[in-house]
Write a structure and sequence with these properties.
Helix content is 53%, strand content 9%.
Length: 567
């Protein structure tokens, strides 16, 4: 491809994307190091990525069980937590990057994804190329994003946040495309896939996104456009919801299997409110305090957008939507909203009030977009505003790109991490009574009291990993074999090829996998297989829904012309 023969618009696009990617990589060059940052959750993410990779390698798909976490008892974290960053990280590890590099490059990839998505979204609103670049940089180099990277290590939220502008861009394009059925097809499928990926990236944040999306659709377009396209938008979003149902249905409706609701996870909001006035203190920086709640702020560009929004409302009173959303978000992350959080279960699942910070950043960008679309704004005003946004973005980046420290381990150490991989051990199976006495991973008892190592029976190991164990043994006594994995729905057992139930009559080992094996005549062997298939009736149903939805989307892609013409 000869760059000089391309038309000016394509040249401008390529140059803009290269510039944005370069600035994001240079600004976040720490992420190129083979270390793990000492943030709130990075160690969890490295351990989870290692276990996600192992689970895929051991044949789990979809992944629901972390085979080596929790002192090798295993942990059902992936039945409840997001998947996108761990799937990307596992692919990177498969490409021979270390676990630490895989986590960091995955974070960097999410930022690149976000800056490009924001550029396309802003550009789709008929904003100039220069301003599209500036607002895309605001989207990445603001306190919320930078604290998510360097303080919190909020990998799931970063993917969620980076996918939101892609969804808005696709909605924009579908709404404004009139007669081109080919383009409508691509935007429809794109919305479905984006919706699914957003849900798979951070489910709690989707609770906030849903009303924001609805407001965006109802206020950004003419009534006639909404009437013509709303059903199409809702259908594509619904398909995205169904595509991801294999994850969110069990995540929501199988919480009775773990200690989540009985733990402290739903009470985290109590101590996580910010003082309203401190949110607007743009002089704060990464090192202003040891407490996260005391370093958060909206950032200089968002602070500037307040005045832009108020000025624009004075000119055109119709443009009040995003300034209102801005201040509603400020309200929900401040202590003034405590009484609402206290009486709303759905908000408790959001966990942290300061998660509304991303809405403030998005509202700020939309305020700038509405302002720039106005033909009444003089060029000199736009130029002055551009300079202020540049200075504010540099100021925010300089204030919040910092690291607390780093740590480093080998891949083997990450594979064998003993922690649960969750902040509050909230995904522990409810029957678990750890710790247990396990001198080896395979044990047996012949009297219910005395525990022996299975190696005493000279088993022939056919397969052994954190997802499946199969072996042959000979025993002339009735015994109970024990496997060092916590019982959790999805584990299944077979004895001599016949499916059998686990036993629960060992008080000292209640909550772990144990199986009754009857005696056999001398020379005969018992074939014992224990495997995490991941199946429960609800999971089978949700996976079937996802597969049918995927098939439906593929059929739509193939037969879209007749379907859209008929509609």
């Amino acid at each position: 491809m000869n760059f000089y023969k391309l038309n000016n618009n394509l040249k401008k696009l390529i140059f803009s994307l290269i510039l944005l990617i370069t600035l994001v990589v240079i600004g976040n060059h720490f992420l190129l190091a083979n270390v793990i940052f000492e943030g709130d959750d990075y160690i969890h993410h490295a351990a989870r990525t290692a276990n996600y990779y192992l689970a895929l390698k051991q044949g789990q798909f979809p992944v629901r069980w972390a085979p080596n976490l929790n002192y090798s008892y295993g942990y059902p974290v992936f039945n409840y937590t997001y998947h996108t960053p761990y799937f990307i990280g596992s692919l990177l590890h498969l490409l021979n990057f270390s676990i630490q590099q895989s986590v960091n490059i995955s974070v960097l990839f999410s930022l690149i994804l976000g800056v490009i998505g924001c550029y396309f979204f802003v550009r789709s609103n008929k904003v100039s190329n220069v301003w599209s670049i500036l607002l895309s940089l605001v989207f990445i180099f603001n306190p919320y994003t930078l604290l998510s990277i360097y303080w919190r290590g909020a990998v799931g939220e970063l993917y969620f946040y980076s996918l939101v502008p892609w969804l808005l861009f696709l909605i924009n394009k579908l709404m404004l495309t009139k007669n081109d059925i080919n383009l409508i097809k691509f935007y429809f499928v794109g919305i479905s896939i984006s919706t699914a990926l957003i849900i798979l990236s951070h489910l709690p944040s989707v609770i906030i996104l849903a009303p924001v999306l609805l407001i965006f659709i109802l206020t950004q377009f003419d009534k006639k456009v909404i009437e013509n396209k709303l059903l199409l938008i809702l259908t594509s979003g619904l398909i995205g919801l169904l595509l991801s149902s294999w994850y969110w249905i069990p995540a929501c409706f199988e919480q009775w299997m773990i200690t989540y609701q009985s733990g402290s996870s739903l009470d985290q909001y109590h101590s996580q409110f910010a003082l309203m006035i401190s949110i607007f203190d743009i002089s704060k920086n990464f090192n202003s305090s040891d407490k996260f709640i005391d370093v958060i702020q909206i950032g200089a560009p968002s602070f500037l957008s307040i005045f832009v929004g108020l000025f624009f409302i004075k000119i055109n009173k119709k443009n009040i939507t995003w300034p209102i959303i801005f201040f509603i978000s400020v309200f929900f992350l401040s202590s003034y909203s405590y009484f609402i959080w206290d009486n709303s279960l759905i908000l408790k699942y959001v966990q942290y009030p300061w998660r509304f910070l991303w809405v403030i950043t998005l509202s700020s960008i939309l305020i700038f977009i509405e302002f720039l679309k106005s033909k009444t704004v003089p060029i000199i005003t736009r130029n002055i505003l551009a300079i202020l946004v540049i200075v504010g973005t540099i100021f925010s980046a300089n204030s919040y790109i910092a690291i607390k420290g780093t740590t480093s381990r080998t891949d083997f150490d990450w594979y064998q991490t003993f922690a649960t991989g969750s902040s509050f051990d909230e995904h522990r199976p409810f029957l678990s009574k750890t710790p247990y006495n396990f001198p080896e991973e395979l044990l047996y008892t012949d009297d219910g009291q005395q525990i022996h190592r299975l190696t005493e029976l000279n088993p022939e190991i056919l397969h052994f990993d954190g997802t499946t164990v199969e072996y042959l043994i000979s025993t002339d006594k009735d015994i109970v074999v024990i496997f060092k994995r916590l019982f959790y729905p999805g584990w299944e057992a077979w004895l001599d090829g016949n499916k059998v139930n686990f036993t629960d009559n060992l008080p000292k080992y209640s909550g772990v996998l144990s199986l009754a094996v009857p005696a056999k005549e001398s020379g005969q062997q018992s074939d014992i297989k224990i495997q995490f298939t991941g199946y429960t009736p609800l999971r089978k149903f949700s996976e079937a829904v996802s597969l049918i939805s995927l098939l439906g989307l593929i059929l739509f892609f193939i037969f879209y012309k007749s379907l859209l013409k008929n509609s």
